[in-house]
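Hey, I was hoping to borrow your eyes for a little while. I've been puzzling over a protein and I'd love to understand its fold better. The fold is given in discrete form, as structure tokens running alongside the sequence. I'd be grateful if you could look everything over and explain what you see. No rush at all, and the record is pasted right below.
>
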Amino acid sequence: MKNEEKESTMKAFAAGEINVLVSTTVIEVGVDVANATVMLIEHAERFGLAQLHQLRGRVGRGEHQSMCILMTPNRLNDVARRRIQAMVSTTDGFRLAEVDLQLRGPGEMAGTRQSGMPEFRVANLLLDGELLSLAQQEAQQFIDRSDERQKLVEALSARTRLVTVG
């Protein structure tokens, strides 16, 4: 459809002149139709958790009870099954993000991979979140103590002829 035709169709749907709308995932962005109460997502196993959560959020914006139906084939691989189970078990976007992190991994912090497990030598990002948070707090306290840090750098420089930059 051309943009003008899409726009007029969406206006007609929002006004209740159209009762059923069949769409691609373009519906995910910028659609706020309060009277939309049912969404059926065909082949839901092909979508990521974030996109499924966004799609589900297009219904139930008004006063009427709503539902989102996730249609999948009978056989799912383990990752797809866990994604669908997560969608069925919660509407909490933060919890879904945690599940997505567990399933896909965080990728590289300073690289190009957008998924997979990082190669930390000591910590596991998924299992050691509390420990990493504590380490971050300690590092921030060290940064905040600039006088003590400077004395430490000077002491180390005197012993090891450490050259500091900055």
Observations:
- Residues 46 and 80 are 8 Å apart (CA to CA).
